[in-house]
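Minutes, project huddle
Topic: does the predicted pose make sense with glutamic acid bound?
PN asked that the exact inputs be recorded in the minutes so nobody has to dig through chat later. Recorded below.
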Amino acid sequence: MDLTGIEDRLQGVKLRTRFAPTPSGFLHLGHIAHCIYVWGIARSLNGQVLLRIEDHDRQRSKHCYTESILQDLDWLGFEADEGYRSEVDGESFVQSANSKLYEDALSLLKEKGVTYFCTCSRKLIKERMKSEASGRGYDGHCRQLKHPLKGDASIRLEVNSKMLSFWDATLGDSFQNPGLEFGDLMLKDRRLNFSYHLSVVVDDLRHKVNVLIRGLDLLPATGVQLYLRNLLEQKPTKPIFVHHPLLYQKDKPSIKLSKRNWDASIASFRKSGFSADQLIGQVAFELGLTKSEGKLKVRDLKSLWA
Ligand code: GLU
Ligand code: ZN
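Predicted holo structure (tokens), as shared on screen:
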């Protein structure tokens, strides 16, 4: 990957990216892969990394996971320049403390007349979509029904067919039509959780994140998140994307580490005697970023893209 494309597009503005884990489990090797890209690219281009805790799903998120994520990052040596450090001084960077902001965004969308109530269960949607070949996640069933305000309903965004473009450092100029490819997006679920899409877009805007580095698994959501972003911003700005390869692809693991459970937590590797630099080195090698399996320190990640 050539980082000069990112630098050129930033036009002298400082790079701001983020690591935004969901505290619904422990960090594993896939997270190290992600951190290698986030910190490696940020440090190579003299940028900043923000740490944001994405606990928008209150039923799945647990504070003990947030604590363990902080410990693992410390141990690995991935230090954020800004963001969540503790409950006390990280308020702006933990989604559960910022419901008002997501509610405001939702109100704005309601005022624009682009939201509606959806009473479909997941099962129902799945059954209906079986016969549809489009690959969208939702067929827009309730859009026309104009349900009155209901307690037990989720809120969706009308996503119309429109081609959107973005630039990605690994994929180049890219195009998606979120209306056709993704469908009407969930903004708030029936358990009153704001969706990942709504909270991540609101947060990236207010945290002034200009380079979004994330796994290729999130690529299908990029167009629809841009669509939402354009509705929320008075003067739409274009973030730069880096969708990076995932560690867990195919039936791969040739990795030495995975004689153990491939999904084992970082903490369990630590307990069985692996060093942080060993883990980072192994993962970088497995991603094809280095030629040997030797140790690698966070401060040397820059060399991967030099
Ligand atoms: N919180 C998301 C996750 O843990 C990542 C958000 C993003 O990179 O857009 O998968
Ligand atoms: Zn519906």
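Observations noted during the meeting:
- The chain is about 35% helix and 15% strand.
- The mean pLDDT is 92.
No decisions taken; revisit at the next huddle.
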